Amino acid sequence: MAVGQSIPMRDAVARVTGTLAYAGDIQLPEMAYARVLRSPHAHARITGIDTRAAEAMPGVLTVLTGADLGQQGAPARNYGISRADQPVVAYDRVRFIGEPVALVAAERPEIAEAALQQIQVSYEPLPAVFDPFVAQTAAAPELHANVAANRLIHAKLRHGDIVAGFAAADIIVEETFTSPAAHTVPLETHSLAAQYRDGQLTCWTGAQAPYQVHKLLGDLFGLRGDQVRVIVGPLGGGYGGKGHVRIEPLVAALAWKVGGRPVKLTLSRAEEFVTVTKHAASITIKSGATRDGRLTARQVTMTWNIGAYADSSPLLVSSGMVRGVGPYRIPAVHVDSYGIYTNLPSAAAFRGAMSSQSTWAYESHIDTIAHRLGLDPLHVRKVNLLRSHDHFCTGEEVHDMHVVECLEACTERLGWQQSAKPTAEGALRYGRGMAVMMKSTQATSRSETRLSLNDQGRLTIYTSSVEMGQGAHTALSQIAATAMDIAIERIDLVGPDTARTPFDTSTSAARSTTMMGEAIHQAADLLKQKLCTSAEAWLERPAAELGVADGVVYAIDAPHERLTFAEVVRRAGLTEISATGTAATKHGLDPETGQGVATPHWHQGAGACEIAVDIETGKMKVLRYEAASFAGRVVNPALANLQNDGNVIYGLGPAISEQILFDDHGRVLNDNLSDYLIPSFMDLPGQLRSSCVEDDGHVYHGIGEMTLPPVAPALANAIFDATGVRIRDLPLTPERVLRALTEEMSHE
Amino acid sequence: MNEPITMQLNGTTISWSGSPQRRLLDLLRDDLGLQSVREGCGVGMCGACTVQVDGQAISSCLLLTGQVAGRQVRTIEGIGTPESLHPVQQAFIDHAAFQCGYCTPGFILTVEALLREIPAADEATIREYLSGNLCRCGSYNNILAAVKALQSGNYSPLG
């Protein structure tokens, strides 16, 4: 059986020989190259654009500006997956530094680059606002019409009697935690080619949500679904930043103006930082607890800086609300989650979307509560952690809860209760910390697949799940091999191409293994029925008396009477027999109360660590890190643990170093990998171990994010354990740690 | 017209008459079509564009074409092919030492150089040597396991 085996990734040989082609590698006949002119102002009115000199340059095909769009027969001017507030190219105003103002298509990238210098744009600067709290004041500029106080989103959750809950508490603790903007930094930057010819638009893009791109481009161009084709190859990293819709409208509009020839745009590393960011967040969390550590009430106020445009924030800020409470049983909970416009680049999903920010708050906070009560933080967590059949603050009954086992797996391996941490030595102080997380996946989503068995006995999976390094295509192949009971070597896979592969909501929120896996099981069941029906005449029995195993259809009462799958197809006079499968969920919350069902299942993870802090330099070293996630049934143990490991290493970035720095004018100061440091081998913990918690069910749970959000609070809790200093702002740079230590000493 | 620049690329003599100031990365990737040489940061921090020059691993975004005149340049195509994998490539597969694969050719070139230069490197040395190659997916544990397996196996770094 293929499920449960650690086989290598499907295209492992292509990955180690460098032959795997990413979106940026695409070469098409007559390809033109695009470059983007970007706004130098955070907020300004555009009073004029002169493109004549650029258009006159040899080798320049065309220049696109906002004036080209919005008329009869042209693409619309604005787009957005939840609110069409974002110009494809700015036309009257710019709202952040780096916003596209014009695009050049040329024979060569260098020519396009040079032509940008020849475009004259005049601006009338407007007051800008960058802080989401200032943006809500009367003095702040209004970024979009009809959005009062720049407050685009206010998601609310009201559960239980909050007054009574706080009244029942022996202590009440209130703290505010912040996390800055950050960047997903896929090593492959955003890249795509688009071609508009004879009323047909084709995009070859590195995107996590091919069908969202497909739908949005159809709407933008007024084209039917069959006139838009979106093709997605392997991604050189996604991590949420290639989710939803990013630069596709921009390049597609340019391709439309070029007319006929394909156009390619590959963003520079610097452009990445103004294309999408992680939501900067400020989270105030107030909890009541009894002396024995039981939580009685929790009030959370979350303020998310969404940047200049809505993008996916209306969905994410609402998800952030339910991801903001933690995996705890609390009788009374109020959450207010605000999404505020500012003059900064738009924010969107960052691996562990919204959970990274919220886990930072609630998992640091629970250690503060434990400390104030004089209790073991492990004990306080276990007293309050949700178990199966408990009710969460959305009112829903939770199932498959294993967060306690995830936490215990980590703390036992670390030796939380079994062994003492090292004693202080010189300037080094040692500490231990832990954290848990629980994250909703998409409440409403759908995955479809088609399985096709051909007359050679090979099975092809048609899927729009995106392979971005997480091993989705390998896991789906293993699931199909198991569901059809055939050897994995006989399986082929056709990846996302809206002209060939059926609908899938997106490859995000760790949903593919669960949802596409379920769709494959359904398609396989149907396909096996069809094979039995086709074999009825040859095996001289009704389908109900036939079985399917090991690549053959056989008579249950006489197993030696059998036909291989290939023979069944051939004798039916066909070249293939195929079947489709669909997995869909439809849930949601009441917008006024946040009550309902937030998710088909909860993702769960934990981490525990031991660190050393140098109190003279503030430098922290992670000596040991233990991680665990709940996986349901593990498809591929080696790749599953690689996801867990990868999440920890990815999570170390925003925990210890990553933050986008903006100057007073809203300009990114560190838009390169010299000044924006992502984890290297030197940041790898001395020992990093991961595990999956499994249960005896047959449900596959996604594991693409779960060990990430606990990293930052586990480290901060360890710093507190080592030094007695509580840090509430990320990242935990040596400078910040040292400053916190110095302040603590000056208070003593 | 510039003087032609001659170099050995994966064992074959290449003569090129463009600007000596063109980045080696652009020459290899755009002009010679070696798409395994990938740009990640453009400032020598990520190692995705790593090549070997006279056996040493180096970021090709930091080299100008004129600087490799008369020298031996090796890319992943000169290490192994899909039909005939190099032991380092096989070890990366055996230990699941990659995810998205964008950084993988660069890592393999650096690991091959490490094992030739310091065959018995201890773990601290391995970590430091490989710290110029970044894997955003976070496969470092498995890369480390692959290197250690090569060190303890039959692999002979000098071929």
Structural write-up:
The complex is a heterodimer of chains A (748) and B (159). With 748 residues, chain A is α+β, with helices and mostly antiparallel strands. Chain A has 3 domains: 12-126 and 190-266, Aldehyde Oxidoreductase, domain 3 (Alpha-Beta Complex), CATH 3.90.1170.50; 277-389 and 410-442 and 590-747, Aldehyde Oxidoreductase, domain 4, CATH 3.30.365.10; 445-585, Aldehyde oxidase/xanthine dehydrogenase, molybdopterin binding domain (Aldehyde Oxidoreductase, domain 4, 2-Layer Sandwich). Chain A contains 17 helices and 32 strands. A 7-stranded mixed beta sheet of chain A has the order 3-7-1-14-11-12-13, with helices on both faces. A 5-stranded mixed beta sheet of chain A has the order 9-18-17-16-10. In chain A, strands 20-30-31-32 form a 4-stranded mixed beta sheet, sandwiched between helices. In chain A, α9 (355-373) crosses α10 (377-384) and α9 (355-373) runs parallel beside α16. The longest helix of chain A has 28 residues, at 512-539. The model of chain A has no long low-confidence stretch (mean pLDDT 97). Chain B is an alpha+beta fold and 159 residues long. Chain B contains 5 helices and 5 strands. Chain B has helices at 24-31, 87-94, 104-117, 123-129, 140-152, and strands at residues 5-9, 12-16, 50-53, 56-59, 72-74. Chain B has a 5-stranded mixed beta sheet, covered by helices on one side. In chain B, β3 and β4 form a beta hairpin. In chain B, α2 crosses α5 (140-152). The longest helix of chain B is centred in the C-terminal third of the chain and has 14 residues, at 104-117. At the A-B interface, α1 and α15 of A face α2, α3 and α5 of B.
How are the strands of the largest sheet of chain A arranged? 3-7-1-14-11-12-13
Biggest sheet statistics of chain A:
7 strands, mixed
Alpha-beta content class of chain A: alpha+beta
Task: Report the oligomer.
Answer: heterodimer
